[in-house]
Amino acid sequence: MRQILRAGFLITFLAYAVTNIVADNKIICYYGSWSTYRPGIGEFNPTDIDPKLCTHIVYTFIGINIDGSVHVLDSWNDLPSGKNGFGKFTKLRELNPNITVLVGMGGWNEGSFKYSQVAGNPTVRAKFVKNMASFLKMYNFDGLDLDWSFPNQRGGVVADRENYITLLKELRQEFDKNNFNLSVTVTAPEYSASQSYLIPELVKYVDYISLMTYDLHGTWENAALLHSGLYPSGKDTNIRLDSNVDWCVKYWLTQGAPVDKIILGIPAHGKSFTLSNLTDNEPGAPILGAGVAGPYTRESGILSYTEICQYIKSGWTVKRDSKQRVPYAYQGNQWVGYDDVTSVEEKMNYAKSKGFAGVMLWGIENDDFKGLYGEKYPLLNTINKIYKQN
Hints:
It is built from twelve helices and 16 strands. By secondary structure, the protein is of the alpha/beta class. A hairpin with a 2-residue loop joins strand 14 (327-331) and strand 15 (334-337). Helix 5 packs across helix 6 and helix 11 (341-354) runs parallel beside helix 12. The radius of gyration is 21 Å and the shape is globular.
């Protein structure tokens, strides 16, 4: 009888353990709030988010002022006096009470200068820390995801590296009083990250680190390259060999980032280019510049997964790079490298094999959220399906 009870306890314990392993995997969904202004079927609002497919959601972006105050970048879209984006976003807890609701600060357009100024002044930095905590309370967020793009770059100074750590430490101390989350989104490749971060210090103060393992190639290289390849192509010559997911991950691990704080970034957008030669459409082909803007994202060089699916349905040729494990598509002089369900599945298995804390999708508004070309949220659903597998 005792053996039966012991066996029953063991089965129950293992079932509990497996459930919690699945539950502990973070699925972080970044929401680009500007997508509310996209035309037609591209329009995306907080109410389009399925919070049951995410463990964390991040509203991007808010900004900073040099005096240490928090800058609401789009008051009409974000505040109750307008479209109340903040309120609609935090209300998603009603559909998933277990979700963690964060606000993202920074991003590419914010640059680095203001963050450098605030972090480098102890008085202003202390004021900012208090203001940030007050902001989170006022608008009912569970924490902050800081995307300072990037310390010691883009208008920053060398002292940013130390000041960034001090800022995180002081935010951590203040946030712990209110049980707020603190995470960071960071540039991933060594050539950039080594300029910005003291990684062994950074990891002490944050709950997790979202690696931007995408946008690793662009027009600055004058070639059509896969911006989120899992592994090197094996045929690069004058192109950086370390600009792929695996090399980025290995750098962060060797610098002391613990696997249980690493979040692997997966893009729901593609990087597009205009080819120089219609007959040269392999990865590495010479380009004239960025690709033509899509009908919904309306930004040259960027296409959402929805737009890519639309182009493929209209006749674009699709190929898959056997080395880098991601697809690309082209028609005429237009070319795009991206992730699809197959490559996301492989990246998910990679993340699981490494024991990472989770993955993030940037950004969910670029997934096929309406299910125009199959199931709704195909990329995000793939992430969920792989995590639910034993």
